[in-house]
Amino acid sequence: MDARKRKSISRSLERIATLELMLEQIEQQPTELGHLYKPPLENMLRQDRKTVSCVENDEPFLASEFTTPVEIMTAMGVHWYFHLERAFSTGGIPDSHMQEDLEAIQSMPVPMDLCTFVRLSFHYLELGVLPRPTAYISMVHPCDPISSMHAAYMHHSQWRDVPMFMPDAPYHMDRASIDYYADELRRTVDFITEHTGKTLEIERLREATEETNRCYRLWLEYHDLRRAIPAPHGPNLARACTGMVMTEGAGLREHGHLEWFEDLVADAETRVVESRPEVPDQRIRVLWFDFLPVFADEILPWMERECGAVIAMDMSGNCPFQLIDTTSEATMFRGLARRALRDPVMVRQSHSTAGEILAEMARLVRDFRIDGVIFPGHMGHKDQAANISLMRETCREAGVPFLSIGMDSFDPSYTSVDEIKNRISRFFAGAGLN
Ligand code: SF4
Would 287 be classed as within a structural domain? Predict the structure, then answer.
């Protein structure tokens, strides 16, 4: 294997070693919830190993954004990886390079106010630590920085010769827009066939979609169980639902994703009936109105322990997904298009009107009997920052206090963990919540 290839998989190999170690620890020191925390790690491990194997054996594989329907790639039998997943998963998985990566992007000739996630993506590209795929399916929604990422990947010498396709995403959600995006997904299929030789059989697409429908149905059940007081689990298992249904292999029965969801629902039901939550002493129910920062492990245990506060809902654990009608090819493509345009975390927040965002916030506050709303104010989410006063007003009408922090959800040096804790602590005290 040449040096460039070796380097491209170096960090994947490191992550494989870390995941193997974490799984070994779970085996050696069993915990009550180990059976639920283990499968998501095994899922990541399986994907990383497959990516490395594709590189080592010159097999075709894709890099893709998380918005490309997994059902299509599963039905086509092509391996893919979300090349930027590591920027998100560091919260649960130690990444020994995160600090050096964050320092390196400070000196990149890129505006500092560009979302750190996007700047990290430039850095990974520049460094050559992303396995080079046979082809890449990019995205232009939901935010402007994402478009700059696509442009960088198209022109940088590392990936310039990788064929790229970017489904064109309309802003609106009317019938014509969904039909338009469904056609873009058909063009995605043609693109994959052209570069990997894999074809799409509609019956296999139906099987994969029905399998993910079953998973989403259970996630919706779990979502309802999370309304209970006390909440059966903290936010981490809900976040794992995203990984278990939006990653490679989710549409395949043999990977056991459905069994994991069944186990999750059963565990939550038992905990609700027995009033035996994962997080004891829940006095404050918080809506974290965005995805949780990647350094959440430095904040959440403190909130639970010191403040009696549990994240009852956050946007990575939210489940707004609708099931897909598998009657025909047309209904499946329309359903997949609608979901990709509207439902995944970040897409949902950035691709909605202010009115829709505020309505969702009010509904979550009511349904999950929220005591306080925290809007982290990730520095990349300038579109959402424009809604802060409207969010505050919505919370006032709903009778719950609202805190806007202002942080970088990838980089704790922007607003330090101590400062974030301090703000949260004063918020709870000022609102009379503890
Ligand atoms: S984190 Fe937000 S601003 Fe950054 S790339 Fe994702 S959607 Fe865009």
Answer: no
Assess if residue 127 is contained within a domain: yes
Alpha-carbon 149 to chain mean position: 18
Q: Is 2 helix (H, G, I), strand (E, B) or coil?
A: coil
Give residue 127 CA to ligand 1 midpoint distance, Å: 21
Ligand 1 centroid – CA 147 distance (Å): 11
Q: Which run of H or of E encompasses 64? A: strand 61-64
What's the number of domains the chain is made of?
1
Q: What is the CATH number of the domain that holds 36?
A: 3.40.50.11890
Q: What is the DSSP string of 391-429?
A: HHHHHHHHT--EEE--B-SS-TTTS-HHHHHHHHHHHHH
Cβ 376 under 6 angstroms from ligand 1: no
For 109, the domain range is 3-198
Answer yes or no: is 259 within a domain. Answer: no
Hey, which bits of 234-385 come out as E strands? 284-288, 309-314, 372-375
Q: Kindly report, residue by residue over 150-207, the tens digit of the pLDDT.
A: 889 999 999 999 999 999 999 888 999 999 999 999 999 999 999 999 999 999 999 9
Q: What is the pLDDT of residues 347-375, one digit of tens each?
A: 888 888 899 999 999 999 999 999 999 99
E-assigned strand segments in 227-320: 284-288, 309-314
Query: Nearest residue CA, atom 8 of ligand 1?
Result: 143
**Residue at 147 is within a domain:** yes
Q: What is the pTM of this model?
A: 0.94
